């Protein structure tokens, strides 16, 4: 990739990654994962049927399915990365991405089997690499930010508590009452942390339950 000199920026476009919404940026634009999940379930069912059959024809179909899934993921990741880079260029901003390296290993012991399958099914690293090389062609800086507590921290007052994440889509700060879409709130934190990189202080209040992250 022929890269341009990196343009100095003072602002970043924060990007939160997930499964329900594959990517949500700090302006509120989101890329739904509904089509991806629907296709994943349909192909998982077909894969089981072909594996049970075990015939040569079934094995050929399995190989074709694997190729189609990879091409579909690549297309969606190209669409998302192209849109994010174009927006950052228009805003004159850099791009701040969650650093999801080692995500599968971290969820191995804590996530349910179905969630592990969903995480393993999507190519987050591929999306990151697409964003990085497209941004390099435009001279747009890309920084990686730790996602720790981004879904539990209030982007308005900085209060961090598990109970702030009411549902997968709803964020309500238990300290100041600020509320907004949970994924956009996380993206705003990632945007801010790309510059400040603070260490959120987690409340130890009990009885708030677990925060639905993805």
Spans of 5+ residues with little confidence (pLDDT < 50)? 206-212
Give the integer mean of the pLDDT values.
83
- The coarse overall form would be flat
- Number of helical regions: 6
Structural class, by secondary structure, is alpha/beta
Proportion in helices: 40-55%
Strand order across the largest sheet:
3-2-1-4-5
* Fraction of residues in β-strands: 5-15%
- Rg of Cα set: 19 Å
From N to C, what is the helix and strand string? Answer: EEEHHEHHHEEEH
Major sheet details: 5 strands, mixed
Distance between the termini: 32 Å
The count of β-strands is 7
SSE blueprint and pairings:
Layout: E1 12-17, E2 21-25, E3 30-32, H1 34-53, H2 56-91, E4 94-98, H3 103-107, H4 113-121, H5 124-138, E5 142-145, E6 170-172, E7 179-181, H6 182-193
Helix pairs in contact: 1-2, 2-5
Give a quick rundown of the structure.
The chain is an alpha/beta fold. It has helices at 34-53, 56-91, 103-107, 113-121, 124-138, 182-193, and strands spanning 12-17, 21-25, 30-32, 94-98, 142-145, 170-172, 179-181.
């Amino acid at each position: 990739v022929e890269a341009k000199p990196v343009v100095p920026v003072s602002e970043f476009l924060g990007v939160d990654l997930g499964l329900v919404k594959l990517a949500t940026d700090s302006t509120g634009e989101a890329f739904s994962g509904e089509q991806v999940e629907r296709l994943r379930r349909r192909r998982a069912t077909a894969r089981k049927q072909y594996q049970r059959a075990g015939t040569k024809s079934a094995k050929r179909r399995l190989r074709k399915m694997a190729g189609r899934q990879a091409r579909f993921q690549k297309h969606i990741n190209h669409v998302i990365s192209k849109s994010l880079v174009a927006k950052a260029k228009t805003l004159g901003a850099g791009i701040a991405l969650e650093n999801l390296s080692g995500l599968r290993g971290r969820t191995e012991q804590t996530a349910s089997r179905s969630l592990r399958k969903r995480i393993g099914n999507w190519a987050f690293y591929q999306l990151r690499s697409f964003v990085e090389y497209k941004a390099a062609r435009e001279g747009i800086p890309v920084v990686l930010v730790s996602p720790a507590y981004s879904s539990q921290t209030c982007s308005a007052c900085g209060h961090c508590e598990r109970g702030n994440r009411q549902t997968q889509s709803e964020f309500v700060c238990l300290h100041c009452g600020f509320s907004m879409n949970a994924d956009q709130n996380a993206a705003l934190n990632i945007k801010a942390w790309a510059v400040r990189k603070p260490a959120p202080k987690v409340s130890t209040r009990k009885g708030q339950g677990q925060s639905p992250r993805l």
